[in-house]
Amino acid sequence: MTPPSEVQVGDLLLLSYTGNDDVPAPPAGWTLAQSSVNYSLATSVWWKVATSADLGTSVTLTQSSAQKAIVGLAAYRGFSSVGAIDSTQDVKEAAHTTPEIPVQAGDLVVGLWSDKSADTTDWTEPAGWAARTEVIGQGAGAYSLLVADDGSLVSTGTYPSVTATVDAPSGRGLSFAIALRP
């Protein structure tokens, strides 16, 4: 996967992998923020600050065996690291809810949702939020992914749970709340 052409040196990059529980090793130079497994659904999130070497260069994840998986990449300007991150799991739900997380003044909270379902054809982000990355797999055992945020910097405290939905109940779901630090 190649970062979008709009990415600049200093942008914070979020890379996510969704597949079965055989999570690939992190790419060179990337920091693991969190991995979560819900039976046969695993999602890992890595981050890094873009350097000139990242512009126009593909990011490669290597699986130990051939399997279905999806990868997402989002870029955020004005942020330098990942602060708090947490995730929740659910089964047979169309609504996927992030956990609450502690935040500091100036953080931006990003939601990342993934599911395993052949029936998912669309995600709906929380009201007032904008989708940054949406990937929908196809066929039996397909995975899908949504990355979204509302663009608002927060005050110190606890950021509440938010819910994204899919158009049919998922076999399994994972929901992440990620605080990006300036």
Describe what this molecule looks like in 3D.
This protein has 182 residues and is mainly beta. It has one domain. The chain is 0% helix and 57% strand. The protein contains no helices and 12 strands. It has strands spanning 12-19, 31-38, 41-49, 69-76, 81-97, 101-103, 108-116, 123-124, 130-136, 143-153, 157-159, 163-181. The strands form 3 sheets. Strands 5, 7, 8, 9, 10 and 12 form a 6-stranded antiparallel β-sheet that branches. Strand 9 (130-136) and strand 10 form a beta hairpin. The radius of gyration is 15 Å and the shape is globular. The two termini are 25 Å apart. The model has no long low-confidence stretch (mean pLDDT 95).
